[in-house]
Design goal:
6-stranded antiparallel β-sheet, single chain, 15 strands, 6-stranded mixed β-sheet, globular
Length: 338
């Protein structure tokens, strides 16, 4: 588990350190103080090559949280100029003469992760540990291979692809964890009895369909019609159950969720994180989300903290880590901690 995050010359951060990190870290603050940028920094530092996406022609970093990427056909179209439209904007005040540095420190030095992004002439280069990459070129790997499985997965505020979700659910079925997945989704929609991976006759793509107990002879409902909150959590729990991420990143946690469901979901995520040694970083604008998480972790208080980002005249943006006792005081005194 990571203990500290250090960022230099990235997005709105000239220099910032966030510590101590906890098992579950809920990032709060006003608009344009860098909440999503913190998730982006962690994601980049946990990639072996931040420039590549093995599963899609769309460069993944650009579309992960900000929908900056443009899909194109390599054989017939020129690639979009992502250097000017995305990568240069990662540098603090767009000053590409200064190097971006992102570091994640862990109790064991061998688990530390670090990223450097810098320009050499017109070429953008990245160093992630022993892996060195240039935008548009293959990585050169050292003799040390990366650990098995993804280091992190991300759940964004944007609606995930229902086809990707279907393939994840199919994998859950293969490892015989269907009922476990349904149990998580029932926290949001108690009507859900069963999930099925189906490709209808004459259709090109598979989708997830749900039995919501509408009665004998009733059709199964596409999971896409069960609401945005259910769709987001479907993809999230299916990913967690089929992959072995070191970190889970969630942008705008409360997006699409009814407030009564937030607490149980935090409880389920907390248990999953403890049982599977996963560290969670999430952003929120919601006071209700903070209170619900605080209550959900009451019995495991050391697992949870709120990271409050705010503008600071000296540091630009400062980070304050609020532990269980701090959050208690803030709630009791009605202090603004969003």
């Amino acid at each position: 588990m990571f203990d500290k995050l250090a960022i230099e010359n990235f997005r709105a951060f000239e220099k910032i350190e966030i510590a101590p990190l906890h098992r579950v870290n809920l990032i709060a603050g006003g608009n344009n103080v860098g909440k999503t940028s913190v998730l982006e920094a962690i994601w980049l530092a946990l990639q072996d090559n931040p420039f590549s996406s093995p599963e899609t022609l769309t460069p993944y970093a650009q579309s992960l949280f900000r929908r900056s990427a443009i899909k194109y056909e390599p054989r017939t179209q020129s690639p979009p100029d992502d250097i000017d439209n995305f990568w240069k904007w990662l540098f603090f005040q767009k000053d590409i003469s200064r190097q971006i540095s992102i570091g994640l420190s862990a109790a064991s030095a061998k688990d530390n992760r670090s990223l450097s992004l810098f320009f050499e002439g017109s070429y953008l280069k990245a160093s992630v540990g022993d892996v060195h990459s240039t935008l548009g070129q293959h990585s050169s790997f050292s003799f040390t291979l990366p650990p098995p499985g993804p280091d992190c997965i991300a759940l964004t505020a944007f609606h995930p692809s229902p086809v990707v979700d279907a393939e994840r659910v199919n994998t859950v079925s293969v490892i015989n964890r269907d009922e476990e997945l349904v149990s998580y989704l029932r926290l949001i929609d108690p009507r859900i009895r069963k999930l099925k991976y189906l490709k209808l006759p004459g259709h090109q793509h598979p989708y997830v369909y749900a039995d919501v107990g509408l009665g004998k002879g009733k059709e199964l409902i596409p999971a896409t019609q069960l609401g945005q909150g259910t769709s987001r959590m479907l993809g999230l729990f299916a990913s967690l159950m089929t992959e072995r991420p070191r970190a889970l990143l969630i942008d705008e946690f409360e997006n699409g969720l009814q407030h009564d469901a937030i607490g149980p979901i935090w409880s389920a995520l907390g248990k999953f994180a403890r049982d599977n040694d996963v560290q969670i970083f999430a952003t929120t604008h919601s006071y209700e989300c903070i209170v619900a998480a605080h209550k959900a972790f009451a019995e495991n208080a050391d697992d949870f903290a709120v990271i409050k980002l705010r503008l600071d005249p000296e540091q630009g943006i400062a980070a304050f880590v609020l532990n269980h006792a701090d959050i208690d005081v803030a709630i009791e005194t009605e202090m603004e901690i969003r």
